[in-house]
Amino acid sequence: MTTAQVLEPAQHSGAIPGRDRPLKVALVNAADRGGGAEASTLSLHRALLSLGHESHVFVGTKLTDDDSVHEIRRFRCFPGVLRGARLLEEKLGWQYLYHPWFRRLDRLLPPGIDVVHFQTLWSGKLGYADVGALPRLSRLFPTLMTLRDLWMLTGHCGYPALGCERWKTGCGQCPDLALAPAIPRDGTRFNWNRKRRAMARSNIRVTTVSHWLADRVRECPIFAGKAIHAVHNGIDELHFHPRPRAEMRRKLGLPEDAFIVLLAGQSVEGTSHGRGAVDYALEALNSCGVNPFVLAIGRSAARFIERWSGKGLAVPFLNDPSALAEHYAASDVTLVASLWETFGRIPAEAQMCGIPVAGFATGGIPEIVVHHETGLIAERLNAPALGAALRTLCEQPELRWRMGTDGAKRAAAMFSNATIAQTFIGHYGEVVAERRAAKSGA
Length: 442
Fold this sequence. Notes:
Blueprint: E1 24-31, H1 36-50, E2 54-61, E3 69-71, H2 81-92, H3 100-103, E4 115-118, H4 134-140, E5 143-147, H5 188-200, E6 204-208, H6 211-218, E7 228-230, H7 245-252, E8 260-263, H8 266-269, H9 277-287, E9 293-297, H10 301-307, E10 312-315, H11 321-330, E11 333-336, H12 345-352, E12 357-360, H13 365-368, E13 375-378, H14 383-395, H15 397-415, H16 417-441
Parallel strand pairs: 1-2, 1-4, 2-3, 4-5, 5-6, 6-7, 8-9, 8-11, 9-10, 11-12, 12-13
C-alpha cells in the first residue's frame, strides 16, 4: 500500500473561506449517475463551481466522464482482513463493516480542502463507505452530512417497511431484510448501534432534504444531541424551466390535443413488495375517467405502458436533463404516486418547468407541492382521490395554468441551484468557523 501524507484542512492566515476567498469543497457520494442523490450532488457541485468556488466530487462508482469526479481508489490492505469482514457481513448481517479506502479518504483529497460534505453513504450489497470512518474523518476536516433517506437511522434499509418504527428504539427483529440495501441475516441491532456509536464520536453538521425528514431524524437516538438543518435539493434552472407546450409536443411527436399525464421515478419503477407505487398510479389513472395519454419515463416504462389500458408512450430513462425537462413541459400534469419521498425531486422538477402536480401526501411532498396552489395533494394510498385530482386538473385548464405558473415561480425561488448552493456555502463557513474557534480555545 502506497503511503501518503495525511492532509489537514486548509489554513489561510485568518481568511474566512466563502467570504474572504473561494471555498475548497469535497463532495462524497455513492456514484455520479443514477437517481436523485446523484443528480443533486452534481447540481450542487456545478453550482459551487459557477459561483467561483473549488469543488471536487469523490464517488464509490464513477459512471460519467466528468474530469472533476474522482472514483475512490481501492488499494490493497492486509491479507485476509477484507475477506474476513465480508464473511462476517454474510454470516451475521453486519452491513458495510470495513472499507479501508474510505477510512483513508483523506489521502485522496487534494491539498487545502476546507470542508468534506458526505451525501449518500450506502450502495448496493458491498457498498463503498464505512460509518466507522466518520469519527476520524470529522476530526480531520470540518464535515457536513446530507441525509436523503432513512438509511443512517435504521439497521439496514433506506426506506423502512410501511409502519415500521423500530429505528426509533434500536431495530432488531427486522420485518423485511430484503428492503434495499438488503442483508442476509438480521444484524440490524448491531448495525444500528454501530451507527449510534459512530455519530456520538463524530463532529458532523447534519442536513436533510426536507423538514419532514428532519423531524424523523430528531426522533432517532442515533442523532441525539445533533442540530438538524433542512436544506432542499437543488434543481438546475438552466435545464428545468418553462417551455412552450405546443412546441414541445411537436418536437417529441406527442398528440397536440391530448390530456397528457407524465410519470417517472417510483410511479413507474416501483420500490415496494406487493402493492406499490405503480399499482396506485395505475388505479388513479384508471379511475380518473378522462382517458389521459400517459407519458411514462424510466427503465420500466415499457412494462408500465403494457399494464396501462389506454393510450401512452414509454420513454427509456433519460440521462440528459434538458431532454427530461422537454418531456415535463410537453405534459399537462405530473402524477406522483410514491409511497415514500423524503424530498420529491420529480414534483420539484415538474414545477420548475411550469407543470402542476397531482400526488400523495407522503414524506416531503407537501413541502414541495402546495395543495390548491401549485398542485393537488391526495391522502396517502387513496388512489381514487388521486384519480379525482387528475380529473379536476383535466376539466379545469385555467386552474392548471394558474398552478403551473405559480408553481414555476415558487420552485425557482426555493429550489434553484444557486439558492441551495448559497445556503450550503453558509453552512460551510459556519462549520469552518466553529472548528477554528474550537482549536483556538483548546
